[in-house]
Design goal:
139 residues; 2 domains; elongated
Length: 139
């Protein structure tokens, strides 16, 4: 069984920073946004490395951001996390998306050896995924 490269964080990991941690973060950042350096009037706390990308819930991974920077960072993080999930799925299954039922190549909903379809090798050659004697004889 393959172990995921970066398993998604458990829900209990997603906690808000404690009061003491908030004070420590603001003191270390001198009351400024970590991203743009503006004075923090409305402050939001975020993980520097998102939990979905392997970040930890440690004090060093928390940052205080202004509202605009937090919104921008969150958008970018969501895209990076989605890309990481796609890449992880590709490495685990060999394909980036689920097979379409309308696909002319191997898009049948059955899971027998005849519906396995084709794959493209690194040298550009397209070969059948199934290498059983029956398929080799019919090819």
């Amino acid at each position: 069984m393959k172990v995921p490269i970066n398993p998604s964080p458990k829900l209990e990991c997603r906690k808000r920073p404690s009061r003491r941690l908030i004070e420590w973060i603001l003191e270390n950042q001198k009351g400024q946004c970590l991203s743009c350096g503006a004075a923090l009037i409305a402050v939001e706390f975020d993980h520097i490395i998102p939990l979905g990308l392997g970040g930890e819930n440690t004090p060093d991974n928390w940052a205080a951001l202004c509202l605009g920077c937090h919104k921008t960072k969150t958008r970018a993080d969501v895209k990076r996390i989605a890309k990481a999930k796609r890449q992880r799925r590709f490495h685990e299954t060999g394909r980036s998306r689920a097979r379409s039922l309308r696909s002319p190549i191997g898009g049948v909903g059955r899971l027998d050896h005849k519906s396995i379809g084709y794959k493209k090798c690194m040298n550009g050659m397209v070969v059948r995924r199934c290498d059983c004697p029956e398929c080799r004889d019919n090819a």
